[in-house]
Amino acid sequence: MSSIMLTTMLVLFALSVPIAVAIGMGSIVGILSSDGASLLIVGQQMFTSLDKYPLAAIPFFILAGNLMESGGISARLVEFAKSIVGGVQGGLAATCVLTCMIFAAVSGSSVATTFAIGAILIPAMVKHGYPVSFAAALQATSAELGVIIPPSIPMILYGISADVSVAELFIAGVGPGLLIGGVLIVTVLVWARIKGYGKLDREGRVPLLESTRRAALALLMPVIILGGIYGGVFTPTEASVVAVFYAVIVGMLIYREISVADLARVLRRSVISSTVILMIIACAGMFSFLITRANVPAMLGEWLVEALKTPALFLLGVNAALFVIGMFIETSASIVVLAPILTPIAVHFGIDPVHFGTIMVVNLALGMITPPFGVNLFAACMVAKIPLQAIFKHLVPFVAVVLGCLMIITYFAPLSLLLRDLVYRSAGG
Asked: What is the DSSP string of 57-85?
């Protein structure tokens, strides 16, 4: 049954069938090919996969990100970031990275970050003399931080799939997110010096105090959300609802950049995005159930333990496999299908499941900026109005930088776990 399921799914992927449909049809074909199995499993497992409280956070974080974009919050964050790092050559490129880091601390979505920040900064970078392909490649890569820095939708999915604390995953994502963001900032500043980009970046820069005053309410948003989660005031799911209400109040009543008509448009866009993700989760949950029923995880686990005898080799093999998988399969679907299979094996090797979760999320996030199916690339090219192939030249160095950071995250566990241990040790004490 499992071989038929996998074959059907991969064939449908190759035919560009939507991901949720491909996974669902693969599962149904597997059921039909199995003696004694009933199609009732389809409905049961799809509903069971969605019957999880933390999943409610996904549509709310998506809605919060869209409200931030429409409510003027993203524009003020750009202005604030530019006032910090925009005073040097290459400062506008560094502003792109820093703004994405801040925006990611609420939206939880890399695609939302690409559209919200890219719509402002890609034209600005082109105006200041950066090649449009460089601007689009940097925006796509920086937006990847949206799924690493908490709150993160893929981390919520991993926590549900692997039965790991979402709050611990969130706090474990801070260190890797800061590492990637910091290395990207250094990279673009050096690259701008070498290539002569960004000599006019100082123009139009608002003083730090003024930009801080204008962006104060926008900056308060991630403080409230993350502070509330780690302080035990509310759960990550409740935090997503708080983020929505805060974005509505600030965007409609204070900044007054969201009208009732805008709100309807934002709600519609958020519903469509949420539906796509939840359908993938439902179908992937059914697929995972059938794969487990066929004893595939146990057999794969035995093979991996035999073939990759040490934790270091296991992590290297997993990273290589996930990097390739991420190129072809959407991040959410990959996590929901693979996390229940790989996490028990990682635990067998003595790897902390929270640390393994950050590795999975960072690695699969690379799939968002690698062809042929990198969603961030499509979004950035759409904003920049350039063909996909035009971005590749400037994309390669950024992918190499993130890959280097991934190796550090993989083999230096304290980067992910130190802050987690400090927070929960102090909470326990």
From this structure: HHHHHHHHHHHHHHTTHHHHHHHHHHHHH
